[in-house]
Each structure stands twice: as structure tokens, then as C-alpha cells.
Q: What sequence folds into this?
């Protein structure tokens, strides 16, 4: 599966890692960047309810069999240098970690590693990667169709969609870590009844349920990445919420596409789950229908048809009133990422097909992921039909779009009989009020 002789039912000496529902077993080992009690940023690996401090581990004899450049990369404050080591070397690191954390290791190894464990609950997570560039795709055909029906009922799907992975260049500077509050943006909006636009706080705040892939090793300017080699350039995946101000977006996006309606914030989860951990959960993409055109040759994989990932994604909402009443979050939707029309490999191949150079740390997101059922839609724009059909949350609360104090939480996990549950963790953010300048319209 991953090129290592690892067992997918192996247990760890850390008891919490063997909890089948927790999602951080020996076979996951996702990477993160964290800090504890005001200390500096450090690389870590999730195991059970703890984080193994890679920076301190790299200085111990337990890592003597790991390549020197990988050990040095583990002592950095972000994942970039480790990602740049390439898949073969990071796979060796993952194999060494699995052996150290397995239940049958000598007690001396347990004694060495125990002091290097930090409780997840005590950690402050950081954006794990210095993101140089961020590209957001439009890879879910069900989302594209749902949105198209709202804005272009006579032609919901543009004629290029089934031939080209559509994307736009996002804003890397406003990518924030899960748990960061998201300030409602200001911008120009124009109602259908108005003659001219006004400037003020967005009234149509929305979430977008997405997966993101971090580039490990890139390509040189002017070269390309073959679709069958593309996944070797992906280090791992995370949950992504590409927040959207729909009213700002609707006014500004023609003719050049998203700008200020998107660039105010994008939230990423703290965990980067490697492609090796996801290997047993690979499936064919489910959204390409019989009769659809075959991808052009540069997007057609010759070796591997299982380019999808069988990861279940869920969206939860907690309103300010729900928190005050200690009410559990309400689930707004659930969708499987195998419903994507375009794979990460195809996104990478297309992104570089013109000679564009991807670099270590670049983030490629799927765009909103939706499925064919009403409860599998990945945004409020779709669920409420652009606000025309408000969502009933309780007997006395409904939503067209997000209000101040609303908190959105994404969760992701892989499950398959006979295999451990692999969690992608959580990606959450709360909307806080806009700050209006003295020149803002009242």
C-alpha cells in the first residue's frame, strides 16, 4: 500500500491510540506544528490523545537510523523543510515512528519517548506550513451544478467543466489555523433593486467544505508533472474552509472571478495526514458518469484508476444561542470526498501543464465538495438556495447565511471494515462582527 511492511491492525503502547473511535491510531501519525505554554513552534505527530515532539525526538539516539537531513528538518518550526525531503525519506521517518510507537518495542524506547509526549488538549496549534501559493479548484460537479442552477438555470454547467479542472489563485496570506475567529468582511454589494452598489459588512457569510493537498516537492518553471507521477509530489491532506461572502462575490466576480469575497480568510485544520496513511482508503471517483467525455490524455491516468479518497466529511453549526443553552452542535451536512469529479493528481497535472512551477508548501484545495443528495451539500448557498429557503435549526432559530457568533466545525475521517479509523481532525472558526471604517456606508 505505502511501500512499507506495516500492519494495519498493529497496536501502540500508548493506550489512547488503540481507541477505535479516536482516529489517531498507530497507522495515522499525522503531522502538525504546535506550541505549549508560550514556547516556540515545534513539529509534532499525533498519536492517541497526545503529540509526539519531533524536534526533541530528532536529538535523541532513537532517531539514529533516520537520514540526517530528515532529522534536521524535524527540528524546524514548520513542515516545509521536511516536506521538501521527498516521499521516500519522509516514508522512512514514518516507518521509524511506527516502530517506536508499536506495542512490542523495548521498554527503553518507551522510557525515551514518554517524556516527549504532550497532551493534545494542552497544545496551541499553528498553521503547519509556510504557504507560498494557494489555488482553489472547483472540482465537485454536484456543487457546480447546484450553484449553476441558482445563477444560470438554463445552463447550470459551463461547457468546459467536464474537460478542464477549473481553479483560481487564492490568497495565501489570509490562511489561518483552526480555532481562529473570522471577522465579517466589508465590501461592495448591490441588490437587484438598487441602482448603485453600497459599501458595508457582508450579509451573506458562508462556509465551503473542502479538502486541501500540500505540495511536498515541486517542479521547475517551464516543466510539467505527469498525472501518474502527481501524487508523489503531494505530502498530505488537510481540511479546508474557504469562507465566502456571497453578496460581495456576486457583485465583483464578473468578469475575472473571486477576489475580496474570498480573500479575507481561509481556515485549515492543524493536522496533515500523509498519503501513506490514506493508502488503504483509496477508491475510484464516483461523480464521472457514463457518457461523460474521457479526460484529455494529459489528465488520463494509465496506472491507477483509484484516485479518489474515501473520506467522510461533516459540517456542524453552533450558534451563540445554542452555546448559551449548552446545546450540542447541529449537523448541516455530510459528504464523501469520492464524490469529486477531478482528483488531486489531475489538479496537480493540470496546474503544471502550462509550465507553472509548484513549490514546497503550496496548497491546492478542491473547492466546495457536495454530493447528489440534499443533505450532502457543502455550503449554505446550496442548502438555502441563496437564502430563498431558510434552514430551520430549531423551533426559534433559522439561517439563510451565517450570523455573528455562529461557529462552523468540519470533521473528516476514513473508515473501512477491518481497518483503523483515520481522523483528519477538526477545522473550526467563529464569525465575529465586522469593523467598519469612518467611510463605510451606514
A:
Amino acid at each position: 500500500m505505502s511501500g512499507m511492511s506495516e500492519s494495519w491492525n498493529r497496536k501502540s503502547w500508548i493506550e489512547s491510540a488503540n481507541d477505535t473511535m479516536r482516529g489517531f491510531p498507530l497507522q495515522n501519525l499525522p503531522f502538525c506544528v504546535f506550541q505549549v505554554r508560550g514556547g516556540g513552534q515545534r513539529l509534532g505527530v499525533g498519536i492517541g490523545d497526545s503529540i509526539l515532539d519531533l524536534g526533541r525526538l530528532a536529538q535523541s539516539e532513537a532517531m539514529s537510523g533516520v537520514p540526517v537531513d530528515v532529522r534536521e528538518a524535524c527540528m524546524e518550526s514548520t513542515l516545509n523543510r521536511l516536506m521538501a525531503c521527498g516521499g521516500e525519506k519522509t516514508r522512512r521517518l514514518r516507518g521509524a515512528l511506527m516502530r517506536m510507537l508499536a506495542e512490542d518495542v523495548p521498554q527503553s524506547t518507551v522510557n525515551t519517548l514518554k517524556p516527549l509526549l504532550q497532551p493534545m488538549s494542552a497544545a496551541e496549534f499553528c498553521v503547519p506550513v509556510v504557504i507560498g501559493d494557494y489555488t482553489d479548484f472547483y472540482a465537485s460537479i454536484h456543487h457546480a451544478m447546484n450553484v449553476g442552477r441558482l445563477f444560470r438555470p438554463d445552463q447550470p454547467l459551463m461547457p468546459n467543466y467536464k474537460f478542464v479542472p477549473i481553479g483560481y489563485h487564492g490568497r495565501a496570506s489570509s490562511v489561518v489555523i483552526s480555532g481562529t475567529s473570522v471577522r465579517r468582511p466589508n465590501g461592495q454589494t448591490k441588490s437587484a433593486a438598487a441602482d448603485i452598489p453600497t459599501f458595508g459588512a457582508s450579509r451573506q457569510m458562508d462556509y465551503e467544505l473542502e479538502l486541501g493537498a500540500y505540495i511536498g516537492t515541486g517542479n521547475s518553471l517551464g516543466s510539467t508533472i505527469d498525472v501518474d507521477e502527481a501524487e508523489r509530489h503531494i505530502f498530505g491532506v488537510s481540511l479546508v474552509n474557504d469562507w465566502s461572502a456571497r453578496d460581495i462575490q456576486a457583485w465583483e466576480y464578473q468578469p475575472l472571478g473571486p477576489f475580496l469575497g474570498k480573500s479575507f480568510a481561509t481556515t485549515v485544520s492543524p493536522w496533515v495526514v500523509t498519503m501513506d496513511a490514506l493508502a488503504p482508503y483509496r477508491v475510484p471517483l464516483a461523480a464521472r458518469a457514463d457518457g461523460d467525455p474521457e479526460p484529455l490524455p494529459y489528465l488520463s491516468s494509465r496506472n491507477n484508476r483509484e484516485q479518489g479518497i474515501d473520506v467522510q466529511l461533516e459540517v456542524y453549526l453552533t450558534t451563540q444561542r445554542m452555546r448559551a443553552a449548552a446545546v450540542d452542535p447541529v449537523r448541516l451536512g455530510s459528504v464523501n470526498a469520492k464524490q469529486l469529479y477531478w482528483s488531486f493528481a489531475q489538479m496537480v497535472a493540470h496546474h503544471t501543464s502550462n509550465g507553472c512551477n509548484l513549490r514546497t508548501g503550496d496548497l491546492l484545495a478542491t473547492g466546495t465538495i457536495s454530493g447528489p443528495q440534499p443533505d450532502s451539500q457543502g455550503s449554505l448557498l446550496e442548502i438555502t438556495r441563496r437564502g430563498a429557503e431558510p434552514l430551520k435549526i430549531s423551533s426559534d432559530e433559522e439561517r439563510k447565511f451565517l450570523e455573528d457568533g455562529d461557529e462552523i466545525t468540519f470533521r473528516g475521517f476514513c473508515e473501512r471494515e477491518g481497518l483503523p479509523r483515520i481522523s483528519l481532525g477538526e477545522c473550526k472558526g467563529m464569525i465575529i462582527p465586522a469593523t467598519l471604517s469612518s467611510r463605510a456606508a451606514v
